[in-house]
Amino acid sequence: MKVFLTGATGNIGSAIAHTLIAQGHKVIGLARSEEAANKLQNQGIEPHLGDLNDTQSIARGAKQAEATIHTAWTQGAQMINTEQNTIATILEALDSSSKTFIYTSGMMIYGDTGNKIADENTPINAPDFLTWRVPIEQAVLAATSRNIRSIVVRPALVYTKGRGFIARQISSAWQEGTARCPGTGKNFWSIIHVDDLAALYVCALEKAPAGTIFNGAAESVSIRTLMETISHAAGTNDKIIDWSQQEARQVLGPFADALWMNIQVSGAKAREMLGWEPQISSVLEVIAHDFDIGVNYKTRI
Fold first, then answer.
1. pTM
2. pLDDT beyond 60 at 234
3. In terms of pLDDT, which residue wins out, 293 or 74?
4. In terms of DSSP bridges, do strands 2-6 and 67-70 run parallel, antiparallel, or are they unpaired?
5. Which CATH number is correct for 2-156+193-216, 3.40.50.720, 3.40.50.2300, 1.10.10.10, 3.40.190.10?
């Protein structure tokens, strides 16, 4: 199958592209520059020049493929407007085509799950900084009435070597000589390795019925345990200091508030319906053994 992939050079998108190619699919990757295009071409991906603000390029990319997977995102004041326009453009391009569209959402749309583990039937309760994503999900799922095979994936916290939130926390701990734990850290988050998530996308592409939602989650871990493991792996003599909400917001913006929530989701539906099975089950083992600590730093600050 020929797949148009936004975010093909990003954390999630690059892993999806690699897995798609390994499974015999052809990938057309959105490239914002000639440099990005060359990088994609060297990886066996057909580059498609454009960006999320260029709706014409997005429409052309979607129309020339049998399926579209959207993983790209932008930062800044125009993020929400850009995402809304991108999804509207893709849905219009795929209208009445019976083609596939997979939209990347996220587990934070459930809000604080308390002492429960959310599944795809759990009512969503998005935090204030993420309420804009709810109508986008609804529009994607409603596109089945327009003869579009639309699917939503809600990834848990995604990690991989050198990229993403966990990798940044490891680098920060290595630099500062201590890990920072938000509050007591007794709350739990669901987590998934990017390679397992990529496999889920491919399973959804090949097998998922139209109008379905899948959580991408492999395990759950307490934030405190996660930070203790990060501290140890970073060679800090297991030092941990409290990270206040105010301090975290200065670094992470509104996303920081989620660090004080319980956000646990089940990936059972994808296992049962798609035959998907995570292969990397322990983030704590990966942090302890597979992350290169401080590789980009000559001295500890």
1. 0.94
2. yes
3. 74
4. parallel
5. 3.40.50.720
pLDDT in tens, 100-118: 999 999 999 999 999 999 9
The pLDDT of residue 293 is 53
Superfamily of domain 158-190+219-290: UDP-galactose 4-epimerase, domain 1 (3.90.25.10)
User: Is the C-alpha dihedral spanning 52, 105, 186, 290 positive or negative?
Assistant: negative
Domain ranges of the chain: 2-156+193-216, 158-190+219-290
Degrees (nearest 5) of the Cα angle 276, 96, 26? 45
Mean pLDDT of the chain: 93
Q: Are 161 and 167 in contact (CB under 8 A)?
A: yes
pLDDT value, residue 30 = 96
Res. 295: pLDDT tops 80: no
- Determine the distance from the C-alpha atom of residue 181 to the mean position of all C-alpha atoms in its chain, rounded to a whole number: 22
Cβ proximity of 227 and 181 under 8 Å: yes
From residue 89, give the alpha-carbon distance in Å to each of 29, 134, 151, 261: 17, 18, 16, 34
Return d(Cα 192, Cα 196) in angstroms, integer: 7
